[in-house]
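I keep forgetting this: the sequence line spells out the residues, with the fold written below as integer tokens. I include a record here:
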Amino acid sequence: MSARTVVKSIQDIMRQDVGVDGDAQRLSQLCWMFFLKIIDDQDRQLEVMQDDYRSPIPEALQWRTWAADPEGITGEAMLTFVNTELFPRLKELPTTGANANRARVVRSVFEDAYNYMKSGQLMRQVINKISGVDFNNLAERKHFGDIYEQLLNDLQSAGNAGEYYTPRALTSFMVDRTDPRPGEILLDPSCGTGGFLTCAIRHMRDHYVKKVEDEQNMQASLRAVEKKQLPHMLCVTNMLLHGIEDPSFVRHDNTLARPYISYGQADRVDIILTNPPFGGKEEDGIESNFPPHFRTKETADLFLALFIRLLKPGGRAAIVLPDGSLFGEGVKTRLKEHLLEECNLHTIVRLPNSVFKPYASIGTNLLFFEKGEPTKEVWFYEHRVPESQKAYSMTKPIRFEHFQDCVDWWGGTKRTGRRETEVAWKVSIDEIKARNYNLDFKNPHTVADDHGDPEELLEALTAAEAETGRLREQLKTILAEALAR
């Protein structure tokens, strides 16, 4: 049975359960089950490879003990075990000893997890389906990794859960242009379900991982943080499905909760790839972690200030920011001035509003910058929806190949030979300063629609309003005469 068929059959079973409501809950339910099966498969392999290895999960709670037997516990006994034994004990799993990192991963995943299923019989059916998968089989794990990515994609239509998902075309393009390599410390400080991480892992394996040491260097150099429980759990499981042996680098925390000044040399990274939350406000007190001139409750602005601090000299970043961050004033102006003084903001790719539909219909931008030298000029590239469609949508989403023209224009790793086109233009730092660091530059090659002389338009509008009034009075007279008859 194919991976897609297995996942579909599991979803069909879950739809029969009265406790599971919607795609987000189904995926959350599927996630903790997948997680325990993957961990158990890895434990079995490690027990063979390492004489002294012991799973951090107590024997009674291991998948092989309570789940692997297709004729094992079911019904009320299953629900009682899961709700009163499995979850409570994993939430309090000790995180000491030789496998402390592994225990910490398990505990963090179950910290705020919840069992939604109300039928022990249906749960047994789901567990039996999952038990049939061998996650130590690289081919099977890869297939499930691909299916899992599609499930995360489907979250776009699952209410607020869509906020955790960045279209894979964007993450792939940003990773491709940033070109991470094994050994470079790569950070996503608001990682969601791990889209940037999986794209970076795939990119490095395709281009640079040639030896076991390369793979080890890559895995040891990944860093990630996620504030919310559901995407954190989804991300950790995503890492396991993509062959990451120790996903303890994915921390369940709020990056912004730590004082800005406390981030020192040891915290500096080579690469930042992320889509920070925007449009939301941080809880009271978070802004006090930042210097007075950067204090705001706007999440995206606080993250931008932190990105600049976290990059090593020569470090590079690719981030998603909304239009408001480009033209906003006050703190936003001071942040942009700081960015342009500390970093070379070499490229801004302007995206159409439909890229993040249906979760959001907001103008967004991809900012690419390198720390160490001030900005002298910024290149802008306007990404346009293909002529064959009016906008991006769920049925016609943005795809990586839609960025091919931008890749061709980019100029390679050194960005050489760039030229102005109908969708590309550059702006000097003097022009930016003259506009008080407003980066909301529109495409100068786009011919604005000619709506005519304003005074003539006003006269025509006044005349039209007068004619409308005359007709309204005429209609009133006709209706009054008709009623009088």
Summary: Residues 158-162 have pLDDT under 50 and may be disordered. The domain at 152-434 is CATH 3.40.50.150 (Rossmann fold).
